[in-house]
Amino acid sequence: MIPLSLAAVADVVGGELRADTTPDGIVRSVSIDSRSVETGALFVPLSGERTDGHRFIEDALARGATGYLVAADRPEAGVGPPGAIVVDEPQDALLGLGRWVRDEVAPVVIAITGSTGKTSTKDLIAAACREVRPTVANPGSYNNELGVPLTCCALEADSEVLVAEIGARGLGHIAKLAAVLRPDVAVVTSVGAAHLELLGDLATVARAKGELVESLGPEGVAILNADDERVAAMRDRSPGAVVTYAGGGAASADGLDATDGTGSPGASADWRAVDVRLDERACPSFTARFDDSEVEVHVPASGRHHVGNALAALAAAHAAGVDPSIGAAGLASARLSPWRSELTGGDGRPLVLNDAYNANPTSMRAALETLAALPGEHRWAVLGLMAELGEGERAAHEEIGHRCATLGLDGLVVVGADAAAIAAGAEQAGFAGEGGVTLVPDPDAAREVLERVLDAHDAVLVKASRAVGLERLAADLVGEGAGP
Description:
Layout: E1 4-5, H1 6-13, E2 16-17, E3 26-27, E4 29-31, E5 41-43, H2 57-62, E6 67-71, E7 84-87, H3 90-105, E8 108-113, H4 118-130, E9 135-137, H5 147-153, E10 161-165, H6 173-181, E11 185-188, H7 196-199, H8 202-214, E12 221-225, H9 229-232, E13 241-246, E14 271-278, E15 284-290, E16 293-298, H10 306-319, H11 324-332, E17 342-344, E18 351-354, H12 361-373, E19 379-383, H13 393-406, E20 411-415, H14 420-428, E21 437-440, H15 443-453, E22 459-463, H16 470-478
Parallel strand pairs: 4-5, 5-6, 6-7, 8-10, 8-11, 9-10, 11-12, 12-13, 13-14, 18-22, 19-20, 19-22, 20-21
Antiparallel strand pairs: 1-3, 2-7, 14-15, 15-16, 17-18
Helix pairs in contact: 3-5, 3-6, 4-10, 4-11, 6-8, 10-11, 12-13, 13-14, 15-16
Pfam family, one: Mur_ligase_C
Enzyme class: ligase
EC number: 6.3.2.10
């Protein structure tokens, strides 16, 4: 972060220094978790359903925080430890501080949204840009009202590129966060059946995701997935230029399985993939074609669907001034955030595809097809609930069960009664794997099943929405801790 005095922070956020606060104390970072506070941090205490951050102000100061924000209606605004900046609402103040830092540093801002693939695409964009330009990207899925300004606050004076993903819980949410980021490049990966419980239908999801495109200025660039017709239609919502990409394959919203893009709606896209190959760990290599040029690309992440993510990354990095050959070199050494297409094991241990961070129908299909592409004497899928799907929840889970039955899997373990429709769908479709379909109540029961049947030369996929907690199972299978 740009070093700022407490007085300067107060001025930026429209707050007031309490009388006992030293105005020239220097802030060098921002934290909302007292456990992660470093020397020189500004602590932002937030009140939530589970706890109240104001309880940890003294802990944050003891760990080295220079000061803290406090709401004017809190008792701590009048009496409390020295270091207070009194504001109307700490979360709004955090947004304002993030916006100010972004404007002060003035990097090229690349923002990403989509129903699936946004975190992996963010990771790939950052890897491509870091090859030649100092780049800041949000950690993990820091994509909400807290994560976006915290990412902005992480900018240094010499940062040249900011890469940030944005999630959506409703209409207007992306627009609000885009007003903080003011992106130069907007990437939309997909519109799919994620968060339908909150947004209602796919048309509304498309409206929400398209708010990012609308936030561009006339000099901005929209990077749109031409394989997804709802994303491609956002072209008309862009005030600036539009660049399209088409990876085809399993992760496309329409479920295309083309390996060269020539049969897909994106065949005329600006960025296209040809000669797609998967190695023994299902990591894709391909030739990316753009304008009258091409570049060889390798993505060290398991799954055919990462072809589209990599094309989006190259296109976005190119819009930020990164030569595609340099961007491709960055992709070759990229590391995705934990629990996303994370393949571990081998060498005498089962291959474990840990994709347990979250799940929706599109990402579930992509993960299953990745499992089918992995080597292994037997292939097992351990699947759980796909949350927030609304009225179509049962049908979506049954469809995933049908897909399991068509991929030649050897066994299916479904975790939790709320995901039972996956098991029902697989059985209805005539699941023929010798391991059959097993419905278990929780991850511990799934572990017991796998301990009985899993062999050192097998492969297993672990995937569900985060609340199911299957990442612990994946960690146990490879003998590692579950923390990211």
